[in-house]
Design goal:
single chain; alpha+beta; two-stranded antiparallel ribbon; 4 strands; rod-shaped
């Protein structure tokens, strides 16, 4: 059975684990209709527009 010849150091172990922490949450963009921040490629929750078309009606 294969057995490691030496103990994996803390630095090597942490470098391997750090690869998963490089991802970032997507940023916000300004809605072209109401200028409120919204997630990209999604319907604006404030005005209901997506790609300059009203997709849902929002009660104001």
């Amino acid at each position: 059975m294969a057995v490691p010849k030496r103990k994996t150091g803390k630095s090597k172990r942490d470098m391997r684990r750090a690869a998963n922490s490089k991802y970032e949450a997507p940023g916000y963009v300004k809605c072209p209709q109401c200028h409120e921040p919204k997630m990209p490629h999604r319907v604006c929750p404030e005005c209901g527009f997506y790609k300059n078309k009203e997709v849902i009606s929002v009660d104001k």
